[in-house]
């Protein structure tokens, strides 16, 4: 091999970059939010055993942003605030009043997932931010 | 013909993944085994290719560069195009890697109506290549959010910049589209320019179709079909912590995206995609043009036994003095 020191240094840099996700996760205990998110809210408990989300859980997990977007279009463009699901349930199409009525534990629900996957929806620039421990203490 | 074969290969990968995951339920094979195998192939293959290149000797400096070389003091040297020192070689290499200066020089040769050869300005190749490569880079940076926890600050910062536009309450990542547009245009170049199509082979079309498949499946997944990103991150964090599990149902779109990526990783060291590492070995880019200042020896020259005049004189000094021959050293 010609110029072995240069080549070896270059290969070490290459390896360091390619394995970045491996060594950067050493020591960090990544916990899946699935074990952490909580459905223990007054509104959901009141629904009893057959409590369910607007659509089935798997669909909601992947598509809740699509649902919110459809609601927004219904409200803002079509002026229609009542959403009827296929099986006939009616919901008021509202981020603040519907989602957060059931999921009133923003910090232990939405935020848990969003922090894990690094999503930071900037809805709260305009919409009323759900009350969390941290922003309550900020105001005091 | 090679266009069709390239396309069919990509379609076959998608079909195999679909059958494997949806029909046969082999999600552990496609979600865990394949990624590990692919990454191993990529790393080992990459290092193997680099070491192999490092073993081939490059005897002479190749000064076929397009600028004035270092000459008399009153002639201005073009230091970037024709460097004579290491520092400027590094500058040339960095600019080549980051801005593709060689492609910027691309021209189009054409016969005019009178039969004269004419060269024309042609920057499209450079522009499309730049779009694709930089888009690809930033897409990869943003993808770090799936395989790091906590996600590093520079990824978050770039997400904010890249996602200034919104669509359906989601950030519209511009670089993803720039990457796919660049790929599409590079493909069109091969398809519609007769001269380029004539020299295009399967190993030109296949990586283009593969990357287009990856880009399009990613975009579909983010903006249209939607996938359970939380579970995907759980799967990916399982890889990097060597504790892999398949966490529940993940949409087939993701497995297709992943399978195409894995094929790309396996194919990478076997193909012309290795230019990513090879660029650093290009003799016309990585050597200073100092042929007239430094003596370069051919590294494979055999050792030749020489007998210099000095040694000759030492050997025969007495005899030479006896017959009155002039001597260099006469003590
Ligand atoms: C060669 C490597 C890859 C390329 C070029 C690529 C490209 C893309 C592109 C262009 C998108 C569209 C969204 C955007 O612009 O960010 C996307 C989305 C996505 N990719 Fe990849 N990808 C690659 C590797 C991977 C890998 C290894 C994974 C596995 C963790 C992955 C998982 C995803 C997911 C889950 C999405 C959807 C993102 C969302 O819904 O927000 N990709 N990909």
Structural write-up:
Chain A is mainly α and 140 residues long. Chain A is 49% helix and 4% strand. Chain A has a domain at 55-132. Chain A has helices at residues 4-18, 20-24, 42-47, 57-76, 95-102, 110-116, 133-139, and strands at 82-84, 90-92. In chain A, strands 1-2 form a two-stranded antiparallel sheet. In chain A, strand 1 and strand 2 form a beta hairpin. The longest helix of chain A is centred in the middle third of the chain and has 20 residues, at 57-76. Chain B is mainly α and 331 residues long. Chain B has 2 domains: 2-300, Fumarate Reductase Cytochrome B subunit; 305-331, no CATH class. Chain B contains 14 helices and 4 strands. Chain B has helices at residues 2-23, 27-55, 86-99, 101-104, 124-147, 153-162, 174-192, 194-198, 202-225, 229-240, 252-267, 275-278, 283-286, 309-322, and strands at residues 107-111, 117-121, 166-167, 170-171. In chain B, the strands form 2 sheets. Chain B has a two-stranded antiparallel sheet with strand order 1-2. In chain B, strands 3-4 form a two-stranded antiparallel sheet. Chain A binds chain B through residues 1-4, 7, 10-11, 14-15, 18, 20-22, 24-25, 28, 30, 32-34, 58, 61-63, 65-66, 68-69, 72, 113, 116-121, 123, and chain B through 42-43, 46-47, 50-51, 54-55, 57-58, 144-152, 155-156, 159, 168-170, 226-231, 233-234, 237, 240-241, 247-249, 251, 277, 280, 299.
């Amino acid at each position: 091999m010609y110029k072995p020191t240069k080549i070896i240094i270059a290969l070490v840099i290459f390896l360091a970059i390619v394995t970045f996700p491996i060594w950067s996760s050493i020591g960090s205990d990544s916990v899946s939010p699935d074990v952490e998110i909580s459905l223990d809210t007054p509104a959901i408990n009141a629904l009893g055993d057959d409590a369910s989300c607007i659509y089935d859980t798997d669909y909601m997990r992947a598509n809740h942003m699509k649902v919110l977007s459809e609601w927004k279009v219904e409200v803002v463009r079509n002026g229609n605030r009542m959403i009827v699901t296929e099986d006939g349930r009616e919901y008021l199409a509202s981020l603040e009043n519907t989602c957060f009525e059931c999921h009133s534990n923003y910090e232990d629900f939405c935020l848990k997932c969003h922090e894990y996957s690094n999503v930071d929806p900037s809805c709260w620039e305009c919409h009323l931010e759900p009350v969390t421990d941290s922003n309550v203490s900020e105001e005091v | 013909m090679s266009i069709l074969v390239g396309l069919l290969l990509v379609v076959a990968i998608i079909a195999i993944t679909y059958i494997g995951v949806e029909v046969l339920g082999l999600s552990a094979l496609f979600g865990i085994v394949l990624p590990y195998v692919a990454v191993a192939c990529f790393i080992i293959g990459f290092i193997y290719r680099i070491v192999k290149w490092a073993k081939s000797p490059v005897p002479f400096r190749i000064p076929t560069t397009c600028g004035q070389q270092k000459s008399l003091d009153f002639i201005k040297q073009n230091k970037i195009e024709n460097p004579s020192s290491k520092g400027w070689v590094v500058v040339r290499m960095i600019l080549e890697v980051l801005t593709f200066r060689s492609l910027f020089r691309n021209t189009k040769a054409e016969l005019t109506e009178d039969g004269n050869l004419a060269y024309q300005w042609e920057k499209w190749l450079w522009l499309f290549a730049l779009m694709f490569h930089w888009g690809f880079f930033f897409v990869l940076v943003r993808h770090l959010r799936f395989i790091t926890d906590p996600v590093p600050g520079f990824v978050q910062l770039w997400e904010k910049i890249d996602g200034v536009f919104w669509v359906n309450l989601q950030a519209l990542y511009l670089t993803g589209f720039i990457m796919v547009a660049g790929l599409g245009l590079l493909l069109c170049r091969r398809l519609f320019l007769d001269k380029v199509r004539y020299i295009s082979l399967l190993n030109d079309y296949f990586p283009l179709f593969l990357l287009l498949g990856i880009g399009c499946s990613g975009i579909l997944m983010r903006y249209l079909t939607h996938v359970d990103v939380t579970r995907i991150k759980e799967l990916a964090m399982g890889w990097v912590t060597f504790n892999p599990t398949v966490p529940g149902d993940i949409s087939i779109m993701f497995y297709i995206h992943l399978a195409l990526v894995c094929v790309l990783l396996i194919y990478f060291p076997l193909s012309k995609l290795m230019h990513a590492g090879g660029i650093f070995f290009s003799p016309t880019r990585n050597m200073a043009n100092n042929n007239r200042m430094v003596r370069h020896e051919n590294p494979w020259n055999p050792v030749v036994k020489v007998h210099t005049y000095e040694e000759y004189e030492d050997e025969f000094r007495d005899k030479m003095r006896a017959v009155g021959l002039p001597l260099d050293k006469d003590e």
